[in-house]
Amino acid sequence: MPSTLEPGVLYVSQKYQTAAHLCACGCGEKIRTQLGPLGWKFSNGRSGPSLNPSIGNWQKPCRSHYFIKSGIVVWAHALTEGEVLYGRHAEVRRRDRYFREQHSGWFTQLKRWWKGER
Predict the structure, then answer these.
(1) pTM for the full model?
(2) Whether 70 contacts 48, CB under 8 Å
């Protein structure tokens, strides 16, 4: 990643599974997103790059919330503090489940898959 980021540019390192950009609101804050099974999904289509899920800058003063879809910033509604907390708790549960599955045997994983617990 360059030390100085340009506005409107999404920098992606597949090797280090990370992306960075300046906040879409124009505040100048650097936003870094982890890619991979515990982070964001990056895709680069004909129309431009996309990051999923949304980017919520809850720790930044601007508290911006948006998606990057096909190279375009799509603004999302501002979340309440309760919605932010709910999202954080859901992320912790998702991470716990991921690591539990990584450390379980293949038979346990097969049973979960068969039951639809993906």
Answers:
(1) 0.77
(2) yes
